[in-house]
From TrEMBL:
InterPro entries: Bact_solute-bd_prot1, SBP, SBP_1_CS. It is found in: Cell envelope. It comes from Dactylosporangium fulvum. Belongs to the bacterial solute-binding protein 1 family. This is ABC transporter substrate-binding protein. Its main location: other. CDD domains: PBP2_UgpB. The keyword Transport applies.
Amino acid sequence: MLRRRFLAAAAAATLFAGLTACGDDAGDDSGGEQTVTFWHSMAGANGEAVNHLVEEFNKAHAGKIKVEATFQGKYNDSLTKLKASVQSKQTPNLVQVFEIGTQLMVDTKATVAFADLAGSAGIDAASVEPGIAKYYTVGGKLQALPFNASAPVLFYNKTAFKDAGIDPEKPPTTIGELAEAARKLKVVDGGKTTRYGAVASIDGWLVEQMLAAGGVQYCNQDNGRSGRTTAVNWDTPELRGIVNTWAGLVKDGTLLNVGRNNTDASAAFQAGRAAILPFTSANLRDIMKGSKFEVGVANYIRPDNTTASGVFNGGAAVWTMAGHPKAQQAAAAEFLKYLASADAQGYWAAQTGYIPIVKAAADTKAFKDTLATYPDFAKPGAELSAAAATPASSGCLMGVMPQARDKMNDIVESVILGKTSADQAITTAQTAMAEAIATYNKSVGQ
């Protein structure tokens, strides 16, 4: 019956709506070396940093614990493989899942809450930064260990600001201020735009964060924090303002539209083709190193006519899958303890640009050395710490968040391309989401 529930739920959502507990506590529970399987989605330099952490852990626990880290592709690819692993009763011990998969993972009932592991493993769950932990806290429990935490920030070309007569120490705080600055920053030479005022990829995450920054809830039931989400909260003047302003900037040639390609947006900014870039802090190191001008890093913007509330973290967390031998689970918890340590987090943040999830990491040599070179590395963490403890700045919890993000992309894209009005696009998407949410909730017995 449990597997049938999983398969029914899988048909309801883009990836899967629910998993089911698989396996049991049978298996090697001896005192020999325990093997811990860890699935992750970190590639390139980030993947190398993960491998280094795993190697260091394995060296320190030789003969007792061996972590086998395996790259499973992008987050969506990893979720698809997780579905298959449940069906075959061969789940990993640990799996990295992006933040919008949180409600979905809780609904699987196939995980062990990090808070339940922490005490026996000697992990101080309270040491996890509250501004990061709040996203993954469901039912009063921290469900997974935040690992690669990021925040939305505004990158801007300080040199261009000075040339345009804009105070580089006073970056935009709202989308309206961004539009005003971008129009001043745009440079046209001989009828050709040589520098756009801004560049942005069509990414629903950017919209989610902008709404949160202005205290606007993305979905109902206090962003899914006080009850099961039943609808998105998109028919608002704030969202219409964001979409219309974005489309207007593209239409008048002020904002460079690169479609849904985040890499192209970052590349255009680093090349000096655009002076402002709303983006993730996860690429802070690359952007600072790759730009030949003075880069400014500021807190993220919010909708017009709103009061600053605060953003929530992006990135992913490491989840513990249930149904494995107790000794193996204890070994997995030991690895989580290491990942949450100051040394591991200091190294991870220094190598990648992600935010340390524990305060003590700021005192490590690795992170201090990085701050000496890139002082702005401290800003994303400070931004999350300063966010208000409200539902809006905690992020929306619902099982079909991956679908919601795609629908938000559709809204922005259709208005930018002139296919429909903001009102029409939002109404259509909100109706589609109501159906998707209802189907998902029914599939998980809610």
